């Protein structure tokens, strides 16, 4: 009996000591004003910025009608139109005698890092208006359907659900070498709150919309701490748990950055394993599917590849060291692979990277990066957008001229 009594006493002292430690810790953190992260409900929003919101078909989209300042990387005033595009308002019915171009893409196309007038699609609209083959037209409209974080699967769904309402003459797929292949693979992509496509037993590419059934807390494991699985009432009244959550999420953020740096180098190589082989297979299948649907609508299709920042670094020696360190044989492997796909399947591919690299190396300037973020890295700055608009305009204008040349009679 005395043993049980002693055990009870010891247990009580232990629990009392733990409770006292928790109380002291709570008081100490509050007195020292050490802040953590509270738990905001049970919802983990996969939307990348405050300008976005969740969507059951696409994972997320831009919020129609929202606006505000952005200075997370670069700086701009973001204005989203009533249809959820970072663009001015457009009528769905195409005005008479108008050339309409639809641009699909990700954050490089959404381009909240720069003001609208500096974006490649805005510059392209102005340049196309001066093309000889277009001068007979009353108007040129280049419409921006880009949304941050989208992969080719989401861009195909965007084409089906929104683009065709505007009856474009030309559809441009702006394909980012840096992560679009990863985005199309449930094995490689960490953010699971998005649609994927997969080949079924008959070899048909079909959508996988199972993300709709994910519990909010399971949508993005890199954005959730184990603390988030505890009751909100407990977390939001405990400074200790809030600090633990902050430490855990900051650790995950560092791990994600390191993991993505390693993963992104695989974009520049031939597929090394089954996951990458399938990611490429699905990606190429999505692009061909998109081409087929564009052709069926009697529109022109152009794939524009946007390079990884390392591909266009101005320092030749730095690029060589990167290739040597990561055992990369050809820095433009993905660009050449997509060009071969276009040649095989009969659609145009404009690879920007080598031409932009030639410019940045000659003038020792950066086409990516801003003063308030990673130097010479991240998204296109004004120079990157300007160079892209020149190259895309040249390609489109030349193709429009060729399409006007009468075909010789046999």
Task: Considering the chains and any ligands shown, give keywords for the structure.
410 residues, alpha/beta, two-stranded antiparallel ribbon, globular, disordered C terminus
Largest sheet composition: 5 strands, parallel
Helix fraction?
40-55%
Shape: globular
Radius of gyration: 25 Å
Number of strands: 11
Order of helices and strands: HEEEEEHHEHEHEEHHHEHHEHH
Q: What value does the average pLDDT take?
A: 87
Please indicate the percent range of residues in DSSP E strands (runs of 2 or more).
5-15%
Structural class: alpha/beta
Low-confidence stretches: 405-410
Count of alpha and pi helical runs: 12
The main sheet orders its strands as 6-5-7-10-11
The first-to-last residue Cα distance is 110 Å
Task: Please outline what is shown here.
This protein has a five-stranded parallel β-sheet, sandwiched between helices. The chain has a two-stranded antiparallel sheet with strand order 1-2. It has a two-stranded antiparallel ribbon with strand order 3-4. It is globular. Helices cover 41% and strands 13% of the residues.
Which helices and strands appear, and what pairs or packs with what?
Blueprint: H1 2-31, E1 52-55, E2 59-62, E3 67-70, E4 76-79, E5 98-104, H2 107-110, H3 120-128, E6 139-144, H4 152-161, E7 170-176, H5 180-183, E8 196-199, E9 205-208, H6 232-235, H7 239-265, H8 274-296, E10 300-306, H9 316-325, H10 333-345, E11 348-351, H11 353-363, H12 382-404
Parallel strand pairs: 5-6, 5-7, 7-10, 10-11
Antiparallel strand pairs: 1-2, 3-4, 8-9
Helix pairs in contact: 3-12, 4-8
């Amino acid at each position: 009996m005395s043993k049980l009594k002693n055990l009870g006493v010891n247990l009580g002292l232990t629990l009392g000591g733990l409770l006292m430690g928790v109380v002291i810790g709570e008081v100490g953190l509050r007195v020292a004003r050490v802040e953590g992260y509270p738990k905001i409900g049970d919802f983990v929003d996969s939307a990348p910025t405050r300008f976005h919101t969740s969507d059951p078909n696409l994972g997320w989209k831009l919020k129609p009608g929202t606006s505000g300042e952005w200075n997370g990387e670069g700086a701009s005033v973001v204005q989203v139109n009533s249809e959820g595009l970072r663009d001015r308002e457009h009528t769905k019915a195409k005005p008479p005698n108008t050339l309409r171009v639809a641009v699909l893409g990700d954050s490089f196309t959404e381009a909240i890092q720069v003001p609208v007038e500096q974006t490649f699609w805005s510059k392209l609209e102005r340049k196309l208006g001066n093309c000889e083959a277009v001068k007979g037209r009353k108007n040129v409209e280049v419409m921006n359907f880009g949304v941050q974080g989208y992969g080719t699967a989401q861009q195909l769904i965007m084409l089906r659900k929104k683009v065709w309402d505007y009856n474009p003459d030309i559809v441009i797929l702006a394909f980012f070498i840096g992560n679009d292949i990863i985005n199309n693979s449930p094995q490689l992509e960490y953010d699971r709150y998005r649609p994927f496509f997969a080949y079924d037993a008959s070899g048909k590419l079909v959508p996988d919309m199972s993300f709709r059934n994910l519990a909010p807390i399971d949508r993005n494991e890199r954005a959730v701490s184990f603390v988030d699985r505890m009751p909100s009432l407990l977390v939001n009244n405990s400074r200790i748990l809030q600090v633990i959550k902050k430490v855990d999420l900051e650790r995950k953020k560092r791990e994600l950055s390191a993991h993505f740096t390693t993963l992104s180098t695989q974009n520049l190589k031939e597929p090394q394993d089954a996951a990458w082989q399938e990611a490429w297979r699905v990606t190429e299948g999505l692009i061909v599917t998109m081409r087929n649907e564009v052709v069926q609508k009697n529109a022109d299709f152009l794939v524009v590849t946007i390079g990884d920042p390392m591909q266009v670094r101005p320092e030749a020696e730095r690029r060589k060291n990167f290739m040597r360190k990561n055992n990369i044989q050809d820095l433009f492997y993905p660009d050449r692979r997509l060009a071969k796909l276009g040649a095989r399947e009969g659609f145009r591919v404009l690879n920007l990277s080598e031409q932009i690299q030639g410019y940045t190396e000659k003038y020792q300037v950066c086409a990516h990066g801003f003063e308030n973020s990673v130097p010479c890295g991240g998204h296109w700055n004004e120079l990157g957008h300007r160079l892209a608009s020149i190259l895309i305009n040249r390609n489109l204008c030349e193709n429009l001229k060729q399409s006007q040349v009468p075909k010789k009679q046999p």
